[in-house]
Amino acid sequence: MPSMxxxxxxxxxxxxxxITLYAVSEASRRGVVDGRVKLMKLLxxxxxxxxxxxxxxxxxxxxxxxxxxxxxxxxxxxxxLTKRGLLSEDKEGHVIEVTTEGREIINSSRHIIERxxxxxDVIDRALASHVQYKSWQLRDLTYATSVLGRExxxxxQITIGEVVLSPVEEEKASRFFLVDDDWLDMIAMSVxxxxxQLLEQVPEKPDxxxxxxxxxxRTEYGLQ
Amino acid sequence: MWEVLTSRQFQKQLKKLDPQIARRILQDMDSLKQNPLQSLxxxxxxxxxxxxRYIKAAHDWRVYFRMEGRKVLVEFVFHRExxxxxxxxxxxxxxx
Lengths: 224, 96
What we know:
The complex is a heterodimer of chains A (224) and B (96). With 224 residues, chain A is of the alpha+beta class. In chain A, 51% of the residues lie in helices and 13% in strands. In chain A, a hairpin with a 6-residue loop joins strand 4 and strand 5. Chain A is elongated and about 70 Å long. The radius of gyration of chain B is 15 Å and the shape is globular. Chain B has one domain: YaeB-like fold, CATH 3.30.2310.20. Chain B is built from five helices and five strands. At the A-B interface, helix 1, helix 3, helix 4, helix 8 and helix 9 of A face strand 1, helix 1, helix 2, helix 4 and strand 4 of B. Strand 10 of chain A pairs antiparallel with strand 1 of chain B, so a sheet runs across the interface.
């Protein structure tokens, strides 16, 4: 029976999107993210290292799948970031990279990266030590890894669809991702389809004849 | 003092909202008359190119505008939860 995918809270969804963008950026500085399978493994390794340290950064749930571990949410995040023009993927080499727009988002997030330095350092190290592997090597590495919390079970021994990695709960974590509302809003707006549509309707050069004084609206709503 | 003007898009959006919310949004927009620079620049690359800024209004609403001379051009209003809802809707539709 197919089961539903859990929908995480707003903060987690937006942090996960940002970490996916950041992971591509950071991994690309040290190697090549050639394909979504590799990206998935890099995210899994980063979260695994955090989980071992009882820290919570990204909060993807990973399941055993054909190529090791897979997170439907991480895959969706990659698709969404690509659709919104923050990530690009070349058709031939399947190389995933951050676009100029994506880089602008990361640059506008420096204060959040610094605020979460300990978590980001763990992520950086995990990405640096795995980005040089090929996707199949990462798959084999994943298969040979024990399922966290079930030390005697390697991932290759469990059934497809079983959970291989869950994030540390925020209440139990020694460190968790610190954000602020304005930053969350910024990430939300940069991935929102509706926001994009509204922005695209704004003309480059405003035609002032198309605007009305606010006073008429205020009167309409009974304000002075 | 700045002159505040609203786009047709904004007027249309406001009409679709609960009148009480619309009223509160308009009240919170008073600050635009005094000092629109006390707002936040949107980090979205396209928004930045257009010079779009925003203020928070009626708690979860964001009013997006730009400035032209001493005029404030209000372009649209957006609920901060919308983006999350878009993602959540898709995630809910996924099956393992």
